[in-house]
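Anyone able to model this chain together with flavin-adenine dinucleotide?
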Amino acid sequence: MSSVPATAESNSVPRRFAVVGGGITGLAAAHRIIELATERGERADVVLFEASSRTGGVFGTMRMGEYLIETGADSFITNKPWGVDLCRRLGLESRLIPTDGRYRRSLVLRKGKPVPVPDGFMLLAPARMGPIMRSNIFSPWGKIRLAMERFIPRRRDPGDESLGSFVRRRFGREALHRLVQPLVGGIYTSDPWKLSLEATMPRFLEMERRHGSLIKAMQVQADEPRHEQESQAAGARYGLFTTLANGMSELLDALEQRIAAHGAVRRNAAVISIRPAHESNGAGANIPSRWDITLADGTHETFDGVVLATRAPIVAELIRGLDAPLATLLANIEYASSAIVVTGHKLADIAHPLDAFGLVIPYAERRKILAVSFTSRKFPNRAPEGHAQLRTFVGGAMQPELMHRSDDQLIELALKELRSILGVRGKEDFAVVCRYVNAMPQYYVGHVDRIREIEMRAAQHAGLALAGNAYHGVGVPDCIHSAEQAAERVLMTAQGGSL
Ligand SMILES: Cc1cc2nc3c(=O)[nH]c(=O)nc-3n(C[C@H](O)[C@H](O)[C@H](O)COP(=O)(O)OP(=O)(O)OC[C@H]3O[C@@H](n4cnc5c(N)ncnc54)[C@H](O)[C@@H]3O)c2cc1C
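re: yes, here you go
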């Protein structure tokens, strides 16, 4: 590898870097390249290419009268540090707000009625058995089966296992179907029988390996002071979530400003292929090369390093001419589509007290919706005084057929379910549909091995790096981490970088 240190002197002609994709991953990658280059005294020219007319990808914020509406992610977890760290570096720390402690719990639908997720139930496992025993989610046998988890032996097969198989094996059918499936489905919109445990919830696998029982492991953790906050929250650990006071687009705007100050953000600029600018001299593929990017308008540009920060099947098409086996591996990552119907209502028109952050719906309840987020209960200023904002999730890997419905049909479907489940009446203040077509990668069994292979192949292309939600986590902090690692990689491996 090259070992020429990049300094202001050695670098009188700035290196050029391209980032393909202007979602949070691409923005964070472009920002990190600029940040690292500046720290190193290097002049770097960064261009971010975004196919559509706006940056942000699946997330952004809009206003509808006094309602503040998130069109995608509405918050992010803080126990993965990369989101909060980035906000701090962007000067946004004082803009971060916590969730409203008064409503910090989740509901799950049981026989058509919202009931509380038992206190301390953390996605897959309970930290305390008392709330489980008092809950009416499970039958008496279901509770006994759950409590028997302590005595279920460890799995001996070291291979990957589906999340559905793991939960059913350790906690029984009821725990899976009545609670875990909807809680996890709310994150991945996935079929738990296909979802890889190792790729999505490795800490629970580790608990089984180390402690032999998740209940025992959760109790050990609950005794540790650092887990205090986590063990008190039920469901999706909402106590650990944060957002920006004026919405997630504050983060996008801050990133975009920094990038624009040191480089360029080009919208309506779809990249259609990437290939080496120079033919290899025959000494091997990992010789640093420059990269030629072709845009949909037929123009070409050459860069020293490129971060590919868009969805895996799109990346596959961009690099097929460069590395067909890598393209095939990327194309094999499946994606699911979903939609959110966002509605505003007078609180007086809702019979349910909305005394939680939201409601998840087990597939077994045979409803047409996956979950409802009570957005205005999570964070302040999301709805005018006396009103509520609801985000109703539809579709996902379990109900893909619903995505064929028109916006009007989705709104009608969501309102019908909200009427039946939460007693929503009267005319809504507004209703909008946000669609996410093939936006959520599905981490199916074998995902970790597939990603390992993808990364080994990608590492052969110096100056090229992959980033995004397809690889090591779908959450905003995961995307930021992936982006920042990719930025470091291209800076180091592109011509003129140092390892
Ligand atoms: C409905 C929904 C709700 C979510 N809620 C949360 C949440 O509350 N908290 C959380 O942490 N995470 C949440 N997530 C997950 C998280 O928001 C996403 O994983 C993350 O935003 C993905 O960002 P990305 O930049 O990797 O991809 P994307 O946002 O998909 O961005 C990719 C970009 O690439 C562009 N592009 C495509 N092709 C090309 C091309 N050829 N050339 C140039 N550009 C191209 C696209 O236009 C797009 O802008 C949610 C996801 C969804 C779908």
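The chain has three domains: 15-57+250-333+444-493, 75-102+335-441, 118-152+159-234.
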